[in-house]
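does this look right to u?? biotin version
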Amino acid sequence: MRHLENRMEQELIYYEELDSTNAEMKRLVEKKMAKEGTTIIAGMQTAGRGRHGRVWHSPSNGSLYMSILVEPSFHVDKVSMLTLVMAFAVATTLLEQGIEVQIKWPNDLVISGKKVCGILTELYHSSEKGMYLIVGVGVNLSKEMLPMELMDLATSICMDREMLAKMLTTKFWEAYQQFQKIQNLTFIKDEYNRMLVNCSRQVRVLDPAGEYSGIAQGIDDEGKLLVQKENGEIVSVFAGEVSVRGIYGYV
Ligand code: BTN
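got this back:
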């Protein structure tokens, strides 16, 4: 375990190997060894976690596996917006580096339709902290070939891991401060929608109550995806409940 410091004076803890940076953050919180802003990075993960219970492939190939601890003072209903704030922070960081990245709603980052970054936000409660969030970010940075099963779905970028981690955390905390003040996404909505790969595209909404197709119109102030159905009705889709697919593939 190596302690580093970034520009924002937040504690950055590096491990060569972990099961999952999100899992380690939870253990540190339980041992009262983490505070808001604590950031964990691992060189590899043996049990990297993805959304919807999936596995996040996490070999030791220079990719970024990072978790940040957030202790919000706002209502639990607002929490899902924070994942979009992180997606925005990653996307703007990469764009500033000249990388043509787009956002697949709500929080995947894609390049030419292939996933380069995923974000997993987990919500917990402790008697000491009350509600707290662990925001986990995985960015594929490897120059090596991806495994066969991921080749059509995933891609990677070439960047220095430590530099990227510092840029991302700085950008995230800047955006987070704004979010805390207004507790909605008006401050990033237009820019987020410009980066949204789904915008003006036909999408299929995988709603457990009944699937439907429509044209994605962008996010609203709360980060819900506005989808115009074939009958003209506009519905707002909440990320926690459903996923959205492109008609001809992942995006
Ligand atoms: C997704 O399914 O798109 C989310 C993937 C999130 C992966 C990151 S890697 C760092 C952190 N630790 C984990 O176990 N998962 C997240």
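DSSP finds four helices and 13 strands in the chain. idk if thats expected tbh
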